[in-house]
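Researcher: Batch entry, complex prediction.
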Amino acid sequence: MSAPLLEVKNLRTYFKTRNGTVKAVNDVSYSIERGRTLGIVGESGSGKSVSAMSILRLLDANGYIADGTVTFDGRDLATLSTQEMYHIRGNRISVIFQEPMTSLNPVFTIKKQLSEPFIIHQGMSKKEAAEKSVEMLRSVQIPNPEAVARQYPHQLSGGMRQRVMIAMALSCKPDILIADEPTTALDVTVQAQILRLMNEMQKENGTAIMFITHDLGVINEMADDVVVMYCGQVVEQAPASLIFADCEQSHPYTEGLMFSIPRLNDDRSKLDPIPGAVPHPLDLPKGCKFAPRCKYCTQKCIDEEPKLEKVADGQLVRCFYPSKSERRSPSHGEITVNN
Amino acid sequence: MENNKNSGRKGFAPFRWLRRMFMGGSRELTVADERYDSPTKLAVKRFFRKPLATGAVIVLALMFAFVFIGPIFYPVDLSETGSESLHKNVKPTMSLMKLPKSLEENPADISSRSSFSIGVDKDGNTYVWGYYYTPSKEAVANVMNIPDDVKNSKIVRAAAGSDHCVAIDSEGRVHAWGEYDNGQYGRNGSMISVCREMPDEIMNGTIDASAVKQLICGNQITAILMDDGTVYAWGNENLSASNLSSVIKSGEDEGKLEKLAFSNDGIYAINEHGQFVSGKSQKFDYVSLFDKDGNVVNENIYDYIGDRKIVDIAASGNAIALLADDGEIILSGMGYVTPEIPDGDRVTSISAGTRHFTALTEKGRVYAWGQNYRNQCEVPNELQEEGAVDEVIASGFQNYAYKDGKLVDKWGLKGYVMGTDDLGRDVFNRIMNGGRMTMTIGAVAVIVSTIIGIIVGCVSGYFGGAIDIILMRVTEIFGAIPFLPFALCLSAILQSSDLHEDTRIFIIMLILGALSWTGLAKLIRGQILSEREREFVTAARSMGVKEKRIAFKHILPNIVSVILVTVTLDFASCMLTESSLSYLGFGVRLPRPTWGNMLDGSRNATVIQSFWWRWLFPAIFLSIVVICINIIGDTLRDVLDPKSEVEK
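Model: Structure tokens for the complex:
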């Protein structure tokens, strides 16, 4: 097997705050293969976006990569110069953001914004770039692209804007597209269209997609591999097929996420949400980070931190009790401490 | 869209016109349309939907046109001619050349020297028109009050001096009125005599009215020339009396005097032998001529005249013109070039106003030269044709042309729309030129402060950290400087240095700009701090856009609206600051006008009470412009902030 296109290894991204250092991403490793889709799932604040932003070094002023490597195409992005990063961003790796409403600059026309990557990265003239941007709009299936190109973001609907964002992100045919919750702000029908579009574009260009979301349904549809993150750590990593097939082993957090998905064929009267909330990043539990919310939590979980261990082929789980049947058994119930 | 230009017209015509001008197409505006407009276009549409703001824009545009285009046609004259000592504090009037009707039809004699004129019709009625201001409470001191015995007599000749009038009636009595405290006439029985014949006969008796050849009044001085060469003259001894007596004496020696002319410093004459009689005065002893290389050389006027005879003499305030018998006009005391008379025509008579000359040719053409600051030399076109007139009288600042004893045309100074100031300068002209200065200073100061403000604000806001802290402390230091005292100190220092006035004014602009950027810098910094947290900035960074480009090309356009509003309001305040500085005498110095230093005179109570036009007009103009700018600024704020917009 050849080296993956992008390999994140032992990445630690910290933020300095007045009250201490926030370990937003704490020893995270994953990799993306060319032409495949990696889904990253997790609650808000689990560090999924920060890990993606760390790849492009687009952290806020107080954030920094404390440790680890981000190997892209044989080079460590964490140590590249700022000038070299300008060349990577938008050209080799580009990003689609969650809010299509605010990700476009409200004072420029679509054409002007779409032209920018062409001008910056491919050194096109304004006129060429403008022609190219209309072409891009057509490729993301925007009707009447010439007219849309002359419009301003506020004149477009959310779905249109997200298409524009995708067009912009794909304009330089990047190797990796980081989609940071691209469909969260859209309604469900538009969401489906956008996802279909992304799939098509991926097939066309062979782009690898890193798909960040908290929506497992979307992950099921899009991803080849899934990384589940919690409190800045990877708690489970597995092929999508395995996670969504009711597999034998999993992390209790993944299990909880699965339970909180509403299903049409469900006979439950209520959803089972995961109780409690994500702990404060400055006040993380000593042992397993999920322990306070885990219904299978034991004293061992509270005292010791489990390691990410291989439980099956291609599946890594960070839990002392990865087996579902085992932790659901009455004997395990005797050693649980919560509830 | 363009097709229905003629249908669906709505709204007040100028607004519709403006809408068409700014937006192209006069289609009706609907909320639905707005969805397809660019933010700028939308803001403009919203702006012009507000009548007050539209009105303010129109008024301001007119003001701009007035102060920036006006001076091209009417440049300010900072030299001697700009001010007119005879027109001090003339109130706003356009009636200086408005002759009474009967005089218009039947004129016998018209005379003027300063801002008022006197005229006599053929029936012997006397009229005074124009404007005269006297601080004296006495009725007779005001030349505008014609005494009863003048009204009741049949007047044959009248003349106006600078501040008095003299009239001779058909019975030979000489009447005088107006100011008298400098000996203009013998109010208290002390008619000053420096003439051959004692003027006692004038005081107590009569002269032969039919034998009066010439009655002229100068600056506080009067002379009557009789047919036999006798001169009765009296007036202010200090001004021109010494030369007066010497002229009269030399006239006695060399022949009787034929024609008299008063300039500011004395009397000059020609005698029956065609000689120029200048008495003791040597002021006009030289004529300035150009040699082959164009250099000015002075030549003795008597040598220049040679044995030619002088047939006519005319004197303006500080120049004298002699007409030689070969038709040449010999000028002394002024740099103006005499008009070119076409071949086959020659000047037959000359006449002088206070600051200009006119000449009449054999064929009846009229020419004028000299100071044209008050339109004295704007000879109507039809008078330049042959046979148009047979007599032209230049008098004061006006000219009257006669044909067959009838007044056919007149030209010259009609008056001052906004009056004059203490040095006789046209307030209207100064408002126009002063406005240009004030607005230019305001604009340059605002541009300077905007540039500094934007750079400091952007750098500080976008890059943050230590740069931000340092720049903000610097901003605070600048902001803490007490503005007016500091500006006063700086301009005082500048005043004592011997810089050129233009340089000094430019430095004042820079000072104003350099002291007023702090507010804008802080505003921009704050805006950028909030803007740079927005998603599109992260999006731009993720596209590989460089930091500098993000700050100036992506974020800055988003806060242009805020900058625009602030800059507009700053423009108004910079204009006001300049005005206060100039008012206090530390800004632009006189004689260069600005609206601020034009208000300078209003520190004086007399000015406020009696000469309201001197402070009211600049104040009105300044207020209107500042109010308009503020209205525009406020409306811009409303239309550019989508949250404050409530659709009607």
